[in-house]
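Researcher: Here's a chain I'd like modeled. Treat it as a single chain, no partners, no ligands.
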Amino acid sequence: MPAKGLRPSGGYRDLRSFQVTTIIYDATVTFCERFVDKRSRTVDQMVQAARSGRQNIAEGSRASATSSQTELRLVNVARASLDELLLDYEDHLRQRRLRLWAKDDPEALAVRAVGKRSQSDRSGPPDRPDIAYAPWLGHRDSAVVANAIICLIHQANYLLDQQVAALERDFIQEGGYSEMLAAARIEHRRQQDLTDRTDSLDRSDPKPPLPNCPLCGKPMALRTARQGSRAGSQFWGCTGYPGCKGTRSLT
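Model: Modeled as a single isolated chain. Structure tokens:
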């Protein structure tokens, strides 16, 4: 049974953003094997960026029970990784003088239509959502594959932007378990400080009332003998001194 105060965590496999980034990751590995020189550092960079986009969504979901701030940070890392990957695919097209699909190109609209259809009716095998994209991802022309993956990255970024906005609202309103503990600790310290100050005031000894002079009745003050056999000792002396020489011993 989860501890009280913990939010539900995990469930990332049901997130549409995780499903799309899984397709992007797998498609990127295959794209690099087919179209990029294996000796190029670009292969490792692209695969790692695609993997980061997927893995950080999963890690953020797992962290959601304890820290909204951690979840939000990891989802933003996923978003940044996909932006890096997007540039790699755009570079591939530009450097080879291949056409980048415009947003309203028929090919781009067809790829986006698959995503909308999958999101609305979950058509196709749930364990292989990439099958619907096979006509583009399995194409022999690298330009078609790269453009299709670019469409998927834009789709994933849109989903992550929505996810980040929702997480920011949740973080402001509630926070995660760690944030709630921190807030509770701050409040506890504040209450403890108030209690300590109150106890300090309660424990402070009130000043005893000053005795009155036995001769004239005026209040007396604490004085120190400067000479004689009692030099250095304290006694009560009349505040009317030297007009009144009344004294009292401390005991």
